[in-house]
Automatic annotation (TrEMBL):
Tree of life domain: Bacteria
Protein name: IrrE N-terminal-like domain-containing protein
Native source organism of the sequence: Alkalithermobacter paradoxus
Cross-referenced PANTHER family: ANTITOXIN HIGA1, BLL7220 PROTEIN
IrrE N-terminal-like domain residues: 39-162
Length: 255
């Protein structure tokens, strides 16, 4: 039986995989959402929509239209925005106008925006293409940057995908202007509680991979547990990304 989303529609990741199969796309190569939109008879226009709006979509009868901001500053963000809007249409969501926050991953709250994010992530980075890579590599910012370059997608979206699919207890933190904007977790680290006092200034001094005490970042871990922190500041876009991988298995981490 097909899994369902919060709104009772077909699971967004299943829908993305189904489209990849129906269009005969090679999941191991970069997938072009402009081609996907064309094959689905969706008209795409680059058009200024409104202040802060990155993408919008609507469907009237059989006519489907997507508009994306012509000022998006990199190809990866443009592709994810378009894939996100395609997701809204194929998942039969209502008229949408999406800003930057709509395309962010803020916790595990189920919503139409999260469904569209899941669809876009699976369309551009299919699970069956990423899992074999994770079996050979640990999740690092370097790996995220490498895959983002190979698949022409954003580093942030790639890091999210890697962390979400990781079998290790792993957390991704995303900071803007020194403040934690959002976080996402691997499946077996959902119950780790982030410390309320995470120091972004400390992260700014820890570029690269270093070993730290897990209790520096999490409230409900033993004081002697260790973690690996991989941190980088992207000055061009003014955000800071941090991947934290705990050394121990989940049952050995908690109090």
């Amino acid at each position: 039986m097909m899994s369902k989303s919060y709104f009772g529609k077909i699971d967004p990741e299943y829908k993305a995989r189904n489209i990849i199969n129906e269009l005969g796309l090679d999941m191991n190569k970069p997938i072009d959402p402009f081609f996907v939109a064309h094959e689905l008879n969706i008209v795409v226009k680059k058009h200024k929509i409104g202040q802060g709006v990155l993408g919008a979509c609507k469907a009237v009868g059989l006519n489907k239209l997507i508009a994306i901001d012509p000022d998006l500053n990199n190809e990866g963000r443009e592709k994810f925005t378009l894939a996100h809007e395609i997701g809204h249409l194929v998942l039969k969501h209502r008229l949408r106008c999406c800003n930057k926050d709509d395309l962010n991953w803020q916790g595990n709250t189920l919503s139409e925006e999260q469904d569209a994010n899941l669809f876009a992530s699976e369309l551009l980075m299919p699970r069956n293409a990423i899992v074999p890579i994770l079996k050979r590599n640990e999740v690092t910012i370097e790996l995220a940057e490498q895959l983002a370059s190979e698949r022409n997608v954003s580093v942030t979206a790639t890091a999210i995908k890697l962390v979400n699919l990781s079998q290790d207890p792993t957390v991704l933190l995303y900071f803007e202007n020194g403040k934690l904007k959002w976080s996402t977790y691997s499946k077996n680290s959902n119950f780790i509680k982030l410390s309320r006092n995470i120091d972004a200034d400390f992260l700014n001094t820890t570029f690269g991979i270093k070993q730290c005490n897990s209790s520096d970042f999490f409230e409900n871990v033993s004081e002697d547990s260790l973690c690996w922190i991989d941190s980088k500041f992207y000055s061009n876009y003014n955000f800071h990304m941090c991947i934290i991988r705990l050394d121990e298995e989940p049952e050995d981490i908690y109090y």
